[in-house]
Amino acid sequence: MSDEIAFKQFVELFAGNTSAYGSEQGSCVHAELTVDNYRMHLTGDQPIGVYPLIHQDGEWLVHWGCVDLDVKSDHKRRWDYDTSDEAFIAARNLRMALAVLGIDSFIESTKSGGYHVWVFAEVWVPAADMRRTLLVACGLAEVPPTEVNPKSEGFADPTSLGNYVRLPYPS
Hints:
By secondary structure, this protein is of the alpha+beta class. The protein has helices at residues 3-13, 35-43, 84-100, 127-141; strands spanning 21-23, 28-29, 48-50, 54-56, 59-69, 106-109, 115-126, 148-149, 165-166.
């Protein structure tokens, strides 16, 4: 597979709201999310996060969801697990719970030592369906649902962004 085909698949997998993106510093960049932003993310020049929610035809939709399992560190005010090993066991358990529900998922190690468990939809799905499915899986796996993304099922204001999730890093 060529690098360009893999790149296009990455952009398609992590599709989201294109009216803004998240910065590495934790702020919102109020500018259009473009293919070049994804490219700069993958080259390490400008890490970004994507807002998963889009508002279309009166409905809030997402193309993906994830559960963020954080590990204790000096710079975190909140965490789910004391060690990376504990978080990895939880991520595996969550992946197994999703498999029982007939849903494929993928585990990514985060730069802070925790894990993201990602679920990708073939088509845009209601944000409520993605969120509630991930919450059910967390309950089955006995994983804290502290950071289930999307964090909201939608908003009264169709221009709202919600929260972003940092994309996986190239390494």
